[in-house]
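Support case: user asked for a sample of complex input and structure output to validate their parser. Sending the pair below.
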Amino acid sequence: MDVIEHYLYTKEHEWISIEDTTATVGITDYAQVALGDITFIELPEVDSEVEQFEQFVSIESVKAASDIFSPMSGRVIEINKELESDPGLLNKSCYEKGWIAKIVLTDMDEKSNLMTAEEYNKFLEGLET
Amino acid sequence: MELIFEKSVPNRRGFQVPESDVPGKAQIPDKYKRSADSQLPEITELDCIRHYTHLSQRNFSIDTNFYPLGSCTMKYNPKFTEVAARLPGFANLHPLLPQLQLEGGLTQGALQVLYDMDQFLCAMTGMDHFTMQPLAGAHGELTGVMMIAAYHKAKGNKKKYMIVPDSAHGTNPASAAIAGYEIISIPTNKDGVWDLPKLKEKLTPEVAAVMLTCPDTLGIFNPEIDKITKIVHQVDGLMYYDGANLNAILGRCRPGDLGFDVMHVNLHKTFTTPHGGGGPGAGPVGVKKELAKFLPVSRVVKRQDGTLTLDYDYPDSIGYIASFYGNFALILRAYAYILMIGKEGLLETSNHAVLNANYIKERLKKYYVLPYDRICMHECVFSASKQTERGVHAIDIAKYLIDQGIHPPTVYFPLVVKEAVMIEPTETESKKTLDKFIDVMIEIDELSQKTPQIFKDLPKTTPITRPDEVKAARDLDTNYFLKTKI
Amino acid sequence: MNPYIANTNDDVQRMLEVIGIKSIDDLFADIKPQHRPKSFDLPKSKSEFEVLQHLQRLASKNANHLIPFIGAGYYDHYIPAAVNALISRGEFYTAYTPYQPECSQGTLQALYEYQSAICTLTNMEVANASLYDGGTALYEAVMMAIRITNRNKIIVDSGVNPIYRKILRSYTANLSIQFMETPVVHGQGDRGQIEKFLNDQTAAVILQNPNFFGAIDDHSDIVKKAHERGILVIESVYPIALGLLKTPGEMGVDIVTGEGQSLGLPLNFGGPYLGFMATKKEFIRKMPGRIIGQTLDTQGRRCFVNTLQAREQHIRREKATSNICTNVSLCAVQAAMFMSLLGRQGLKQLAQLNLDKAEFTRQTLAKIKGVEVKRSSPTFNEFTVCLPKDASEVVVAMIEYGFAAGFPAGRYFPGMERYLIIAVTEKRTKEEIVRFAQNLEAVLWN
């Protein structure tokens, strides 16, 4: 499973990449494999407020529906509209072209509730046994 | 295969509408008229007959194939019940005739069927009253949960939660949620039954009811069922019995005697009304007398002179849950079936349904992982985990069976078993049919060791190979006439 | 043993040996003695022939001889013989839900064609593969409108079938949904009253065409005003009437539901019937029930599957769009067969014939002294008359003459005790209509 070094992770398999006070979020390689071919994504609205670990996106594959939770609190400033017409990007390129939303963060302390790449890797190993 | 719309040729007709025998042609003002005709096909009757006959030949069905689909009770549908349902004295009966003569005098025969079925179901289940109205199992669940809510409301109970097992059918939590309850899911323990300590932990006074199938979706009868009903009643919670698996226990025990307060019966399972490719079904709901006043209206009641009538005068009733008296033509089929097999037949039904399932379980457990190795009831659940390690998943097993002319068992349900394969043979299948099925399952296990790669391209004998379900969901096409992307 | 049990005693013995037990009773050991039935009092088995005699005796106790001029949402239409022949094929009616697409293409394609037929009939973009009946379909439409708008007030025109309105009330008793019922004036919905409730808390307006009294309408103006405030319009329709009438799609309606019984299903004393639902493509993911989609197999051939299953209870459990599982597939296929046989022209001709006969009936009844046949709004095959007597007494008297004379409006509308709602389908002959009028006159004045 691919894990990107400097990103942070949740137990629900979302990633977040922070630059100053803005961040990009998406789902991890583990998540996209587990979900299978993704057929639909319901994106959040721009300007909507999200809270850490609260559902803000839902994703459907052929035989599953999953809630995606925001890794941190903030305001959505941009969404990846391309996913609406091509949800397969979430499978093909979950860390790059398949990013979901950009968020202006409101509470940097929340970082401490997330896992580093190393911790997330360990977490994944635990899941496989 | 061509669509019926693609067979259309302008000015062909499949049915002759009669000439009018009344004078004058009436007109509707243009503002109220459709601007263009529909695009329904123009075909001859023969075109229509061939089209649908060819379509029918692209189906597996009980009439043509063994259909051991777990939790669906795909038993043989006796032909006589079809004759019964089509008797003109019932089939042509308008549902509002009772409204013309309020004493029910115009429909005594039909009301008798409803009344007798109420009595029969009460006798079989130990409940006190049934409503025949719910139009499917899930509809019955919703009706039952609405009565549970009405019961608690009348008592002033503050209830918030509905408890269901993690192995429950999806309709259980969905029905409870629609009626306004939050769901608590309780896990299954290592013996395949409910984790009693976990249940006790979650069982607060805010629990409205517990919804259970018994035997459960793993095909296991919980020997401690009476303990569960007892502790739930202690917090004034009610016990809901999902009758999906009633075929296993006919004449052996009755949910009413076990302490259940509300239940539904799937006539399309236990009482063999045809499944129709997904419906119609019928899900009558039974209650103990404490809940009778909440039953939906109308209710069929017997007057002192022995005649029957419809009574709407129940101020505590949850009201109308369906337009009329239920899926009457299905109730009539089930009625005919019960009359034919009688008490003896009902006992034989559960005996042979359970015998057949245990026979399959015993013979296949050497080859497939049996997560809960104990006596099962009318169905058994294997895990294809061993075969999956070799690259052959439950779905691949299903497709191999299709090529052998056998409808696959239910796969990937219940969710608590990995790669679940859920087999329900029913009482109407013979040992010979079961042996053939078992042989094929053993063959699959062997092939999974020798040549696991062959499964990927199956099935091969069907009119189509595996469909691209991802494409179906991404490039939605659900209407022939819609040419733009959804 | 009954003819539906397959194992012989010999089979049973061999199976018990394999299992390693002595008797079938041992298989029920988990059921403790104290859990055995307290009683199991059911009748002895009977032969097929004996049951047939019993059922025929019961059937003869139903007043099936009455000539129906009653409709009220459920109509006595002719069912072509080919429909019965096709729907009696065991390959259709003894199949299960098409979860395994490779061996269910028959059902799946037939349902895709059904969805398409409903769409062209209503001029809508997408339809589902059926719901239980017209009443419960309307309830599902209300829940769908609430999901789409996140609002909780519903305007209901009183011309909507009162049985449907009762169903809506009972299902939503424990939910925070508010219904506002608006009156019918001069046969049609009261636009002034509806407009009063059009505000930003309103989720939907529910209308019916033709309405319960038989009046037809063009709801385009209501749709326009509703859409200006983000409100959806739900319309319940009578499919045979759509052979002629302006379609909900043309009016801009958002969700269409209806009772499909008239599309080739027998009256069956109330069921099984066919709830249909169609909507705009933008709402497809909010629609309840199974949806069949077209796709390709691994060899590139056209095929059909259940699609968008992630909306449904077996995947989403308590978060599903509805709890519906079993629907009425077979009735939907039956309706598709009926629509295919009638076709584009046949359905239009059938609708015209219904209209002609109803119009003739209305003119004939208008000649009877004291029978008021109002004409404030046009009608299709059903209309309301005002009688000089209580309509419920008149229908009882008409039973003696062999007629189910109509639906007494007072049953559901207090104050309308003298009104009778009369339906006339293509099956009513001129002779029956004339005799109906003569007998009605006799009942009113002799």
